[in-house]
Design goal:
With 414 residues, the protein is of the alpha+beta class. The protein is built from ten helices and 24 strands. A seven-stranded antiparallel beta sheet has the order 18-17-14-15-16-13-19. Helix 1 packs parallel to helix 4 and helix 1 packs parallel to helix 10.
Length: 414
Amino acid sequence: MNNTYDLIIIGAGATGLMCAAEAGQLRLKTLVLEGQPKPGAKILMSGGGRCNASNIRVTEQDYATNGSIHTIRHVLKIISSDDVFMFFERWGAPLVLEQDGKYFSADGRAMTVLQALLRAAKEGDAEILCSRRVSSVALQNDTFNVVAGTEVFEGRAVVVATGGISYPQTGSSGFGYALAKSFGHQIVSPQPALTPFKASRDIFSHLQGIALPVRLTLWLKNRKERVSEGPLLFTHLGFSGPAVFDMSRHWVRAKEAGNTVLTADFLPFSKKDGLGFEDLPPLALKKTLKNFLGGVFPERLSLTLIKEAGLDPASSLELLSKDKKKKLALCVRAFPLPIEGVFGFDKAEVTSGGVSLEELEGATLESRLQPGLYFAGEVLDADGRVGGFNLHWAWASGQAVARAIARKKEKGAS
């Protein structure tokens, strides 16, 4: 049994490497198997190559799940954003806090973060083998046999850190879901999340490149479901930006349940319900619609909104009827975005859905169906919003699993 590992981690992404780093510090004999030629491909893409490693404030409310939100809360207690900061500081990848609350690699290089994880894992004698795509896992005499190509590795515990199926070019194949199913686990239907929207009409295509703050509201059967605030970016095919990314995961789920409408408020910071025509001085009322909205929005956007309201840009405000003012206000404050759908997994930053949290043991993330089998990271039904929350989930769940395995080993030895 000397060749048996305390844990075998499947996947050398953010979750797997953090799990390996923590396991090494806890003196666990650790093996990481990665199907790709190199580890951490998705880390290098994070934050536009700068690696948005965490956020100054992380709570369970920053995550979506169809399972137990209490599990997410317990896991997040494992590591705070301050702990993340100190971990990477210790291993040679200092982070910097930006004004929006996001932590990035101080040198602007995601590679620095990856190298820190590899350094921490190797310091703990974790063995990392790349180009070892796992094909099956089976239990035999309380030991897991993990098959990768022609090789078979033995482990007392297995950690599934394979990720979801977003960005398949990084090696995300959905194997973790198949593995979970082979042990009887339920999978919440995977969907693309943190992804741009495709437009069903090209009314905004000429606005490509314009970005502005918005408040997006998702309506399901005339009931307000979700609100997302932040920048929206017009693209030649639809809509992108943080507000869109955060809303995409909720839109996909709501769309399955019935008719949805997504409205955009282009004046999210206004405390008024409409456009405040009643408060304008007499001189301002003599402005044309083009000049009035042109003082607030880029001209291309203001002309588009006026056109969608069915009005003449050359009309003066004082000659507008009450109904026409209402139409214009609705276009500006509650414009129904023409959404055809979201871009697929090749454009999605993360996967929504995955292994159900209901079938795992609290903060340990151990399978209730098969002792010794653990799941961590994006393979789980827990996805965070934009801003470093998904990497924070990777760090927290990776460490949670490593600590749980260490406690179990210590308990068994006592």
